[in-house]
Each structure stands twice: as C-alpha cells, then as structure tokens.
Protein 1
Amino acid sequence: MSDTIVTLPDQSTARIPKMNYLTKENGLLSWLLTGDHKRIAILYLISISFFFFVGGSLAGLIRLELLTPQSDLMATDTYNKVFSMHGIIMVFFFLVPSVPATIGNFIIPMMIGAKDLALPKVNLLSWYLYVAAGILALYTMASGGVDTGWTFTTPLSTHYVNTHVLTTGMAVFIAGFSSIFTGLNFIVTIHKMRAPGMTWFRLPLFVWAHYAASILMVLGTPVLAIAIVLMALERTVGIGVFDPTKGGDPLLFQHLFWFYSHPAVYIMILPGMGVISEVISTFSRKRVFGYTAVAFSSVAIAVFGFFVWAHHMFIMGISNYAVLIFSLLTMLVAVPSAIKIFNWAFTLYKGSITFETPMLYAFGFMGLFTIGGMTGVFLGASGTDIHLTETYFIVAHFHFVMVGGMLMAFLSGIHFWWPKMTGRMYPEKISQLAAVVTFIGFNLTFFPQFILGTLGMPRRYASYPPEFQILNVFSTAGASVLGVGYLLPVLYLTWSLKYGEIAGNNPWQATGLEWQVQSPPLTENFPEIPIVDHEAYDYEWLERQKEKEVASVG
Amino acid sequence: MSDSTAIAHGTAEAHHEHPPYQRHHFETIAQQNDATNFAMWLFLLTEIMFFGGLFTAYLIYRNWYYPAFVQGSHQLQIGWGTANTAVLITSSFTMAMGVWSAEMRKKGALVLCLVLTFTLGLVFLGIKTIEYSEKIEKHHVPGFHYSVQSFVDPASDPEVYNEYHDKPLALDMARHTELYFFLYFAMTGMHALHMIIGIAILGFMIFRARAGAYTTGHVTFVENFGLYWHFVDIVWIFLFPLLYLINRHPLAH
C-alpha cells in the first residue's frame, strides 16, 4: 500500500493551461467588476484572510494581557475594546463568510456542473457590501472601538457605554446583508443550476452542507438586522423598546439577537462539515458512509438550530419552563452532529487512508469538534450551565468548535482545493508540519481554559486572582505556537503561487466534477456542460474514466 | 466520424444562439427566468423575517400593556387608514395590469400602468405624511418630547374622546403608549421606506419602459418588481388591522 495518492503530472513537461480564469482578462478593473464566481472567491479569500489576521492580532493582545494576573499591558477599558473587536471581527468578518464565500463560492458551481452562480452581480455586490462593512469596522476600531462585547448586550449598549456602538452596529448590519446575498445565491443556484443528471442525492455533501447553511443565512440574518436597527434607535432616540423604565424589556433584544446568533454558529460550522465530508472520503478512497444520513443531518442541524437560542439566556431570568424546553432542544442538536462524526469514523473504517495535509487538518477537526460539541452538552444542561456560564469554560467551548472545528475545516479546505484554485501544489512536508503545529498550539491554548472555567475564572476581565496564573501562562504560550501555525500557510501558499509544482487536473484522484476539468479552471468552468450518470464519491467511476482516457490517447 | 461530429457540433452551435437578454451562464431562457423568480421569492422571505422581529415586539408588548395599546390605537384615524388601504390595493391592481401589459407586449398600456402605480404610491406617502404630521403636533413621536397628555386626561383631546370615551390611564400605564407609538412608527416607517424604494425603482422602470425595454418578450424584471410591490402591499394588509382596526370596538370593560 502506498502512503500517498498524490499523482502529479511530469514536471518537466507540465504547464499551467494558458487559458484559465486568471489569465482571461488582466488589470485591476477586470477583477473589481468581475462576475466570475471564482474571481469573487479569490477577492473574498484575500479580504477574509486580512480580517483574520486583524482579529488574530487582537487575540494575541488579549493573551499577552492575561499572561500576568494584574491589568498591566493595557487599561481595563482598552482590554474591553480589544476583546469586543476580536469577537466582532472574527465572527462577522471571518467565520461567517469563511468557507461559504471563498471555497463555496469557488467550488459549488463546479460541483453541480454550472458555469456560474445564478446571480453573478448579486455575488459581486455581496463582496462590496462585505468590504464596505469591513472598512467601517476598521474605522470604528481606529477611532476608539466599542466595548460591549460582540453581543451588543442591552442595556449596556443602549444606555451605559460611550463608545462607537452605532458605527459598529452599522458595520455588522451591512455585513449581514452580504451574507444574506451569498446564502440566497447558493439556494437559487443549487435549486436551478444543476447539470443534467445531477439529482439531489448525487450532490456532494459539501453542497448539502452549504444548502443547509444558506437556509440559516436567509432566514436568520434579517432578524439580526432588525435587532440592530432597534438597538440603534433605542440608543439614539430612546424609543423605549429595550428600556425597562419605559416598559420595554432588554430581554427582547437577547431573544432577537440570539435568534440569529445561535443559528449563526451553524452558519459557521456547517460549511466546515461539508469540507470534512469531501476530504475524509477522498483520502480514505471510500464513499461517505451513510450518505443520506449525513445529508439530512445538515438539514436537521439547520432546523433544530432555530429552536435552541434561549440556551444563551438561562441565567437572564427566562422562565423555568423555557429553560427546561430549551435545554432539551439543545441536547437534540447534538444528535445530528454526532451522526456526522460517527459516519465519518465509519467512512475511515477499512478505507485506504493516506495522510496528506487536508486529511491531517480534517483529523484535527474531528477530534477538536467532538470535544467542543460534547462540552456544549454540559452547557446545554441548565444545572451545569448556571455554574459554568460566563466563565472561561464557555470561551474554551466555543473556541473548540469555532477555531478547533471551523478554522481547521477552513484550512483543510484551502489545502484541499488550493491546487484547483491556483494550479499549483504547496510543499507537502512543511504543510503537514503546519497542521501538526496548529493542532498542538490549539490544544495548549484552549484546553487549560476548560480547567480555568471549571475553577471559576470569569471571562471578559483584564485581571484575575494570582492562583490562575500558571494555566494562563500555558494558554498564552499555546497562542504563540498557534500563531506560528497560522503564519506558516500564508508563507508557503504564497510561495507556491510562483514556485509550487504543477498540480494537474486531479492531484488527489478525487471524484467531484470540479476535479475532472483543468486547474485553474476556465472562466466558464466546463467546455461543455457535463451529463452526470454516477453517484457522488464513486471511485470505480473515476477508475473507468481514467481507463477511457488512456485508451483514447493510445 | 468527422462528418457526424461536425453536424452534432453545428446543431449545438445553433442551440446556443439565444436572445441578447440571456446571460451567458444560463443554458436556456426558461432556466434564467426560473432562477431570478426564485431568487425574488427568497428575498421576500428575508423581508418577512425582517418585519417578523417588529411583529414579535408588537405581539409581546400589546399583551403586556393592553390598555395603553388600546388607547394608542384610538389615536389613529381610521378614515385615512382605510383610504390608504384602498389606494394601495388599487396600486397593486395597476401593477398586476402592468405585468400583464408587458407580457402582451403593449408598450403604451405598460407605461400607463407604471405611471398609475407610481402616482398611487405617492398618494399613499402623501396620506401617510398627513397622519405623521398630526402625531408630531400632538407630541406622539417617541423620544421627541413625547407627551402622555391625551392618555392621562383623555378629555383634553376632544376629537378622540367624543368617539371612544376612554377612561384616563394611570401615569405608568399611560407612559407605555410611547411603546405603542414607537411600534407604530417603526412598522409604518419601515413599510414607507419600502414604498419609497419601490417608487424610485418604478421611476426608473417608466423611463426604461418608454424606450421599449420590457415589451420585447423579456418581462422578468417587471414580474419580479411586481412581486416586490405586492409584498409591500401585503405587509400593509397586516399593519392596517393590527394598528388601526384591532381596537375599534374594544372588549367590554
């Protein structure tokens, strides 16, 4: 058994195809006015990477401050602003658009055999909205920032703080519309643009996951928009809707906000799960075990995801019956998530597993997401939640899901589709090293925070009792390792753009339609629209295709 | 072999000849129309969710502060509200006729229908302005020198008092009328904003329709705008009973 499935063309003769989406037109304007989903994906990739490093630097500042028990690196209110901006940038400007707007944008039309997304102009508009919102957020940060936390909690945000709540709220509002347009475009495309023969149950699971996430974007984000509008009106005009002295109720804001922001968690994680399905199948050379179950579990997560929001409010004075019901519903969401993890595990069983970089990241995802998900059940149980909420346990939990889960999935996807996007391979050994460094750094950073939380260290404070220092030092040390793990891909992926080996059409021997065309693809993706006559992940079909190719050349 | 492929290729070429309004990434014009129509319906779904937040707030606060919401509702002029409902329904009719004219390729009728819809939209906003200015005069705009005078002492507002004979509210309940008026302004204001956007697009469409843009068989834009206009209409169909009519004959005290 070989330890790799990578097949690259003969490097002495291989060339990048002269005609492709990158060389079709030149000049800045051809990018800024493009309707090509692949170019928009690249624009998105550049912008979200930038925001990731802005958010990451803020995280670095937080960890540096927490190295010592006293508040010494920055003033306490500066610390509040730093963690608020870290949250806002990472959630709205990195995690929500991360996989859908980059990889999804690039790959979904190719996976379903279409020339583009259904609405190319709306797609470009969504990028411009994202950029406008991003600039507004950066302007806010430069002019003093905001210190409400990323949740804009009322009445803090409406009555007490004196920072830039309105401009930040506006930035989030605009970014929300960017995400609505992405989701809307995906749903229309998946319904109406599939190639002949591409039935719903022949779709790769990546597409199913994005379909489920898009439903959440389309239905949830408008509610966030109205919540922010009401918050802004309360702050400027004093309309009373969240003001108890006028009969309003701050809890209403929480309900509206979390009605979006809990499903938003699934907007962030579902596309990542889609990536993992593709990667696990490709590198164990097997059809995903229980295809239908995995497909429907995405939809189930989307549906259940809308009925669990109040578990963010167990200690905020909602009724005991509501706590009971939402606690139960929260546990139910764990079921479809577990279905996915078990099915991936069964896909690996007796597969021909190889350990390329995307697969290493995918393994990282499976382990870390499982821990993140199971600690979520602790928090869904109202008894333990009352003890653990607002402590570092929460911080560790959602970082395990969002960073350990989603970011690992994002990196896995970027490494998986990089040869398709650019036509070149990155250096194998150093990228495997980066995956391992990220995994170690991540665990060192966030595992101690579970212990800190259980011991009772509250979140969102710049200082803490000295007995917590040792674990915080571990965490800060881990964050430095993690930082290296994230910088490495930027370096070698950039390097590979010019010096990487030529990847050829299908370096991983994967089955998706996107792998059956040239890399980088043509602007119209397919010279002629393919007719699909096989199931997803059909490796025998792929073998037959290769035989045909050899026969026809011979 | 080469002959048969050439023929097949030839027919494929012929198949790819399509009208100028077909975007390159669609296989057929039917697929394009289908996709844009579907996208519009999805967009309207997001709009429903957007208004949904306000309807939720209305539902909760009405339940909590029933007397304040009753008396707040009595301040609205049912006459103007009814007139506006009629105006809006008529405009939906002219819009539907516009879509029909576009499909039938009747340019003159299309322009006429669009102009009528445009005018009726403006009439709606005009009536809304009259209603808003009355609220401003009575200090019923939340946040701007809001006054509870009409509710703690209903007799001081003879016009409304003679019709409904409301009992005075205690001060703390009377203050909750501010929430009613906020929701009134938020919901009708958001609706009016959608009307303004619609009217602006209508202006653009009239301009294009006169140049003959929508009467050559490609009516998707007019059709989708029609959907938007009907949606805005339907929102009003919910707002009118909820804000104006619901306490016309309140439960016996």
Note: Chain A has a mean pLDDT of 93.
Protein 2
Amino acid sequence: MNELISTDRSIPFMRYRLPAMVLSIILVLASITSLAVNKLNWGLDFTGGTVIELGYQQNADLGQIRSVLEQNGFNSAVVQNFGSQRDVLIRLDSIEGVKAQELGDQVVAMMRANSSETIDLRRSEFVSASVGAELAEQGGLALLTALICILIYIAIRFEWRLALGAVGALAHDVIITLGLFSVLQLEFDLTVLAALLAVIGYSINDTVVVCDRIRENFLKFRKYSSEEVIDGAITNTMSRTVITSLTTILVLLALFFMGGQLIHGFATALLFGVFIGTYSSIFVASSLAFMLGISREDLLPPEIDKEGEDLEPLP
Amino acid sequence: MLNKFPLWKNLLVIVVIAVAALYALPNLYGEDYAVQVSATRTTSIDNTTLGQVEQALQAAQIVPKSVVIEGDQVLVRVANDTDQLQARDTLMKALGNQYVVALNLAAATPDWLASIGAEPLKLGLDLRGGVHFLMEVDMAEAVRKIQDQLRDSVRSELREQRIRYTAVNRDGNDVIISLRSADDFSAAESFLNNRYPGYDEINDSDANTIRLRMTETKLRETQDYAISQNVTILRNRVNELGVAEPLVQRQGAERIVVQLPGVQDTARAKEILGATATLEFRLLDSDNSVIEAERGRVPFGSELFPNRNGGNALLKEDVILTGDHIVNATAGFDEYQRPQVSISLDGAGGDKMSLATRDNVGKPMATLFIEYKATGERDANGKLVFEPLSEVINVATINSRLGSNFRITGISSQQEAQNLALLLRAGALIAPIQIVEERTIGPSLGQENIDMGMQAIVWGFVLVLVFMVVYYRKFGLVANAALAANLVLIIGIMSMIPGATLTLPGMAGIVLTVGMAVDANVLIFERIREEIKAKRSPQQAIHHGYDSALSTIADANITTLIAAIILFAVGTGPIKGFAVTLAIGIITSMFTAIVGTRAIINAIWGGKRIDKLSV
C-alpha cells in the first residue's frame, strides 16, 4: 500500500488548536482590514460599465490606442493587454453625452477607423449600474443563504456545535479568499462569486467527512476524552482529506493553466479556497466544536419514547 | 454470499450508462453548415417553398447535402462555409423579403439517433458567439397609455350620451371627469357605474367630479400585457434580423432577455431592437394658429409637436389610430418614384380609420412618430426615466375615406422608408424598453473558449486518472472507469435536458466535478484500507468499507448540492450553467462511485477466496 500519511498513530491536532486559532484569527482580521481599506476590485458585473476586448493581428500599440481614445474625449478609459500582446482590453465608465449602451460600438468603430489592420471584436460587455448593484446584492444574498441552509442541515443531521464549527470554518474560508482578492487586487466578477460558492461546497464536503468521523468515534470509543476522539477522527480521515484536495488541486491547475483568461479568476479563487478549506476543515471546524464543549452525550442518537411507556401500569 | 450483486443491480448500472452514452453520442457527430429559411407573418413554408429553394440552389450550382422542411422552416445543409455564404446570398435574392434567410449550424445527428430525441448539447453564447441583451420595460409608460385610451373613450362616450363635462383628464394613475352641473353629474354617475371593468369609481357630488381609479388587478394585467406584447414584438423584430435560434424570454416582472447566437453586428441589432417607436394618426388642427400655440397659447384639445421638416404642427389631442393596429407595412415607391410606405391595418383599425376619415375628407391628417429614449436618469423608485420624442413625420390630405389599406408618402429617403416600414411591421410597443445589460462574444473567442475548456477537461481528467492508478492500483483502475462513466453520464444527461446549455463556467464545473468525483471512491478505499489494517478478511473489508463510507458520502454530497442549488437559483446565464453541471455531476458521481464501482469490484473480486486486495 502506498501511503501519503501514516495513520497508525493519532496525531495530536487539538494540541495545536491555539496556534491554529491565532493564525486563523490573524488571517481573518487581516482580510477584513484589507477589505475595508483596499476594498475589492469589483468587476464589470457589479459596478456596471463597458468592457471591450479587441484582437489585433500584430502586437497592439497600447499607447496609440490610448491617445486615440483621449483625442475622442474618452479620458477615463483603462487600456491593457489581456492574455496576450495582441489582445487588448478597454474598460470604460459611463461618459457624459454618450448613451451608455452605445459606448462599446462607438469605441470599436473608432479603433477600426484609426487602424490599418482588421481588428477582431472578441468580446464586448455592457452592464448598467443598476443591474450591477442588483447582481452584487443577489450574490451577497446567495452566499448568506448558502451558509444558513448548510448550518440548518448540519444542525439537524449532526449537532449544533458541529454545525457552528462547520459554518465558522466556511465563513473563515470565504473571508480569507475575499481577503486574498482584496490584497492582490484581483478582479472580482460573477465567475469568482460562483467559485466562492463552489469553495463553500467543497469545504463543507471536507468538514462533513471529519464531523461524521468525530460522531462515529464518539459512539465507538467510550473511554477516550473528547480531545483524543477528535484527534483520532481527524487522523483517520487525514489521508482522504489530503488525497481529495490533491486531485481537486490537480484539476484546478489544469483549469488555471489551460482554461484561458476568462476562467482565470475562477480558478484562482478555487485553488486558494480549496487550500484554505482543507486547512480549515482540519483545524478550524473541529477546534470550534471542541471549544464549544462537544462531548459524547451530545452525539448519542435521541432516545425514542415507546408508546405508552409513561403511562402508569393498569392495576 | 458477501459482495455479490443481484442481477437487477448489475443490469441497472449497465442500462443507465448505456442510455446516457446513447444520448451523449450525438455530440461526437459535430455540426453541418446550414442555411435556414423561415416564413414571415405574411407567408408560410410548404412544398412550394422547398421547390423554390431547390431550384434557386441548382441555378447557382450549389450542391447541398440535403434540403428538408424541419418544423416551420426549410433547412439547407451544405458542405462548407463558402457554400453556406453563397447559398444564403442566392436564397435571399431568390425569395425576396417575404422570407427570413439565416446562417445556422445544424447538428449532424444521424436519423436513428434523432428519432429517439437524442441531440447534441446546446452551447451557451460564450461558446458559440453572439449577443445577449437584457431589456427593461418602462411600466409607468404602459400604464399612462392605457389611461390615455380610457380618457379618449370617456370623452367620446360622454359626448354621445350628451352629458356635458368641463374636463376629462389624467391625474397620475387616475382619470378625473369634471361635470358641468349636478344633473350631468348624476347622469354620468349612473352611466359610468360599472361601465369600465377594472376601474373603481370615486364620486364627489360636491365638486361634481368622478374619479376612475385603476384596480390592482387591472394594473397587474396591464403590466403583464406590456411585457408579453414587448416579448411578441421583440420576437418579430428578431426575426427581421435573420437570426437562427434566437431566444426572447421574459425574466422577472419587468425584464426581457434576448439572445442572438451568431450575430456580430450589434450596433444594427440594437438599433432595431432598442428603438421603440409608436405611430399615431391624428387630425391636424387647422382652425387655430400655430403661431399662437408657439407663443404658449395652445388651444384646449390640441397639442403642439415639432415637424421633422422644420417648424411645428398643431394636432388634435384625439388619436384616430395607434400603431398597434398595424398588420403590415412595406417600403416602396409611389407613381412619381418617391419613397413611400404602404400600411395595412387590422379589422378594428380599419373601422376606426374609416369612421374617423368619413367626415374629414379633404382635411389634413398627420402621422406622428413617437420614439422613446431613455434619459439615463432614474426616478425615486430606481426606474428608468423615458422621454417621448414626438415628431410629425408627415402631413397628408385625406383624399378619400381610408380603409384597411393606405399609404404614407412624403418620406425623405428610401432608407428612411425602409427603416420606418421595418419598425411599423414589427408593430408598435405599448411601453418603451431600454437595454440594461449587453454581452457580445465574437466567434473566434467562442471557439477559443471551447478549445481551452476541452483542454482543461482532458488534462484534469488525465492527471486524476494517473494519480488514482498510482495510488490505488487495481482499485484505482476501477475508480477511473467510474470517473469515465461519470463524464458520459454528465454529458448524456445535459444533452437530455431540453433547457440545459453548456457554458464556459459549465465546462469549469465539469473539470471541478472530475476532481471531486473521486472523493467518494477515496473515502471508500480509505475505509477498506482501514478494515484491512484491522485484520479483517478482504471480503469483509470491501463490505464494511462501502457500508461505513455511505452515510459520509451522502452527507458530504447533499451539503454541496445545497450550494449548487442556491447558485442555480440566484445565478444568471453562464453561472446557471456552472450550477447545473455541478449539481448533475454530484448526483451522477454518487451513482458511479457507489453503485458503479461496487458492481465492478463485486464482479471481479466478490464471492471468491482472496488473500490480498490491490488497493
């Protein structure tokens, strides 16, 4: 048998819960600070505006494109390469005197008129500010709903301490991933939001596996302390956790390197999210449940009253 | 006996995978270049059309792969894209503007597969290229128009009843009728009582006024009507554009989604879709002076409008006819070779026109063209503010009593006549619309997205396959078989669901599923290893491994499914595609990883004496 991790002896994870907690708290606080100070680099989907991607035959001259835009009064335009030297991304906010939904067409026409080569319109997107605000609201709502639904499911299926631990771990993953996007100023668009929800899905998957084992071991080993049981459960599931993370990270690397520019943000969010999710399902979820004082009694199946049991026997 | 599947379970696995494979099969056949011919409102597709198409192609020496009637269109399949373009131009010339000729890609699914309803996956706009519009309908305007109609009919009915009023006016969403005397008030009160369904009357005998207030139900009906009328009209306009497989669909209370695959010229598409125009025919007020009106003394019952050719025109407030009665409009030339538009009206429109022009022969009638343009501002409720731009485009003398067919002359250019005819033909919108979101993907990027998505899937798949074989050896091979079956299941099921489309995030969802699908097998195999370490016999280990992993797998997947469902509920377009593939992937992976692998493992190792497991 090939083994990545030896699971013969229990690893004392709970002993490291304090340093792990400190690390997590620092990361979460840092993320929140960065979100407050740097904010997120909101993509077009949420801010509204216009984005145009043009494909040139040869390497595009960004300076010339900028000056053409400026000559025509489009001073606020952001021009950059996208993916390759020949692809150009132009991002515009609304401009006075031009109907927002016609902005894109105007710029394309302008670029074509000012260039001798044929320019391929690869992509153009226009989102009005109100739709953007709605999408952002819906997105936030989706994240919250997902967290609450999962909280309810685990509370019913397991126990409220484990549920809180699991959802705490999820919130931890989401906040730190958002923090990464804020610190690196990566663009946060709809696909990244989708990735965040997928991270929630993935991380909860991981956490549930650990929780399941904690419950099972509590019922199986009566004599051990809570700490020993939790350590044992995490050790038991350790190789599974690592292997699944590994296969997932493998496919995400394929997506990151092969999937193209449009999927880049998505792949980045997931890669980081899976990484942090794996860490949190080992250290955060169970530590939280442990600190909330989970014990064997909490996980015993509820006793079912037999019908007529409470009645006095008939004389 | 331990680890033996009953026959029905093995059959179930085989049948499920076979059916999915069958429905996934059309995706391997690719697509033919095709040209589709569909009818406009005035024509229909029959064998004559088919004959015409065949003849035209023959005359142009284009050899099609096939020419058939499919549904309500003629589909011409050709060998390559050069033939496709040539065929389109030929057919456009041969059939004239009575038919819509559009380029398309038709699935090359063999007949026996098509006959069981197997079709290739539909690709989202981000993969095949095209335009996506989200449009918002101006509801306030829809309500205003209905109220205007009510006002006009109240006025004429009161006149007919000889009930004297001082004013009938619109006030917000209400119509207020002020009556001359108490007698008129009581006559009006009994006459109007329950006369207009959908309105409540609020009578004020002190002020001699009656207020007609729209009920909530009527308001909702009006809004529903405005949306569905817009959807219908947009469909017609989209047909004018000659797009294959367009989508026009209501979304929510006041929005409409329009998707036009393959359309590149978005400027033109927007011009035609976005330009809301209404036409009104009104009598010219020639009794009063335009100059007086321009000074601000507009006579009661008249309105002042700018004239396209300069100056202003004074028109009666009463509308003879609105554009929604227009059935058809075509551009052409009159006997002096000047551009004109011929208009046909529906029955009710013809009656109205006939009635209104009967007593007015020799008097001038004006054509008022009203375009709604968004000012870009929003009111307190966040609704777009639209501004009507009315313009008198034509004043013509009524030469005779008009009926259902008449023409507008005096249009400045042929291009103008064509544009006007196009807009009129597509009908007039009861409420103006505004584009609030637009996404265009060029064909080159679409193809690139497909290629990259496929590459990512293949690479991800191969990496996982290699890892599983190295780590779990023979059991890894079994898991790999399950993974392959899982891919077939996802594609088969996606092809079976009519509304499902594959998008770029959807492809990412498949890649992610590949990575996560092995999780169930990893859980099971790790359990089996534990059982072996605990010195159980191999058969016992397999049995207990599967049993104890089951509830974990179920819990873990249900929570992920919750996330996917929420994603589907709130997501739009491509994100929905991701949610769909993720959800389908979760369900199919549970089937293949639990039932599928067990069937193989039972068949190979089950019920035998074995000393060692290759796990």
Note: Chain A touches chain B through 78 residues (CB under 8 Å).
